[in-house]
Structures are given as structure tokens and as C-alpha cells.
Amino acid sequence: MIPLFTLLVSAALAQSQPSPAELPVMVEKVRQKALDYSRSLPNFICTQVTKRYSGKATSGSRQPSWKLYDTLTIQLSYFEEKENYRLTLVNGKPVTKSMEQLHGGKFKGDFGSVLRNVFDPRSMADFSWVKWDQVNGRRVAVLHFEIDLEHAVFGTTITRGGRRVHMNWAAEGQVAVDAETMEVLRVAVDSVGLAENSPVGAVHLVLSYSRQKVGDQEFLLPLQSENWSNSKSSGAQRGVTLFTDYRKFSAESGIRFDVP
Question: Which residues lie below 8 Å from residue 130, measured CB to CB, with a gap of 6+?
């Protein structure tokens, strides 16, 4: 059942742009939903299909020309807030190698970390109003956010000169919030302010959620994602992922992964 206070706030805001006093109330409601998201999920299994692309690195936020180089089919299990990935097919053919043995970008599911990064109070994200919109037939409030480098929570790890290098970056983006439930249905994140001599170029992420049935209940779960980045040492990489066939986790499914 949706709390009455949330319904009243949602009804009021759905009529017009929220006032300077109303916007922080909305953000705090969304924050609580986002920070509790991972704990609200059931144990489940789903199929993750990721198409991986490569391209030549570009300057700034200009997107490269992409070339598809493989398609991965992965059995993803989520048990007690931990994710496990088992690679089953590459380009439609069964394989025995693990995810760790794959070359190229590792594009995994996200079940709360991006939302936590945006809404964690330590990120000091600054939110502003954008507009009302529609996502999957639902009325959503679109909010813009900015996170400065001092409070950076997003980062990228690359291999440079045989060593793994991690660097955080400032971020900006948008969240689309269900006007009734205060749940995030879509989040987009872009890197900002990267230095000219940075080994990492632009980073871009879009993640969409939808209601999925697991057992006899529905939960808000990832539907699809797109992630691309530029690296001056290894070029540009892109992953487009679709999550399907959500089902309840069982003892048997935890030890056996059937090739679809």
C-alpha cells in the first residue's frame, strides 16, 4: 500500500511544476526508495543478453562509430543481495569459459549501485526540476542532478601500462521518477569535467527499469541498459544489455544453469 503522504505529495506535484519547497520533499521520498532498493528485491534468476561494440576513441562526449563484435548470453542469479554471473553462450554458441576470462568490457547488471551513487547523501547531488514526461505509460517527474568531483562516487577502472588504474569523475544526469510510487524508472549518467590528459574519455550510462513478475509477485527490476566509454589507451567500448526471463531462485537453480 502506498503511504497517504506520498499520494498527497504526488497528487499535488502532478498538477504543476513543484515549488522550491516541494522539490526537496520529492527528492527525499525518492532517496529513501532508492537507498532501500537492493534490500527490497527477491532472490531470482534472469537471462542477460549483452551486445558488445567497439570503436575508435573520440574527443569529448561525441559518440564513436560502433562495430558489433560479439553477443553474450549470461545466466544471472541474485541471492541475498549478491550477484553471480555465468556465461553460457557467445554469439549463440555454448562456451565453458568464465566471465573473468573474457577479453573486453564486462557489462554486468545493476541492482542498486547506480541509484545509491546518485542518492547517497555523501554524494551531495544537487537536484533541479526538468519536466513531466511518460515512461512505459507511467507519468514521471524528470529531475536533473549534478555531483561535483569533490564528492565523486562514480569511477572507471582501466588497464594502463600493464597496471589497473581507477579514477573517479564528476557526474551529471537525469532520473525519471514515477509520480505515484516515487520509484526511479530510468536513470542516465554522464561524466563531466575530465581533464585533457585523463586516460579516460567520456563515460555514459542509461539504465531503465520495469515491473517484472518473480513467482507470484511483481518487482521493479532492470529492463535494459546502455553503457559506453572512451579510453585513450584501449579505444571506445559499448554494451547494450537486455534482461529477460526473470524467475524465482531455488536451491536447484542455484547449482544448475541450463543453456537457453
Answer: 142, 143, 144, 174
